[in-house]
Amino acid sequence: MTNSRADDLAGLGKRLQRARSRLEEVKQEARTAVVAAAEDGMSESELARLLAVDRMTIRSWLGKGRSSLG
Q1: φ, ψ dihedrals at 54, nearest 5°
Q2: Residue 43: DSSP 8-state
């Protein structure tokens, strides 16, 4: 592998690390906003639609587990 290719890959690795870090920050902001909106009465379905995530993600962020069917 050439030094140039290794440098390119290392640069991409650093960019991926920064992107993952930023993603976690945004997800935490979203979780905080979801909790506040749910406390204000917004439905899980509406929250999921607005954030373009699955309703089960919203339930998870609200600390609700999957209910057992039995």
Answers
A1: -70, 145
A2: -
Angle formed by the axes of helices 44-51 and 3-39, nearest 10°: 150
What lies within 8 Å, CB to CB, of 7 at 6+ separation is: none
7, part of any domain: no
Alpha-carbon distances, residue 1 vs 6, 7, 33, 54, 57 (angstroms): 7, 10, 46, 42, 42
CATH number at 40 reads: 1.10.10
The C-alpha atoms of residue 31 and residue 29 are separated, in whole angstroms, by 5
11-47 tens-digit pLDDT: 999 999 999 999 999 999 999 999 999 999 999 999 9
Q: Which residue's entry shows tokens 């690390």?
A: 17
Do the beta carbons of residue 59 and residue 51 sit within 8 Å? no
Q: How many domains does the chain have?
A: 1
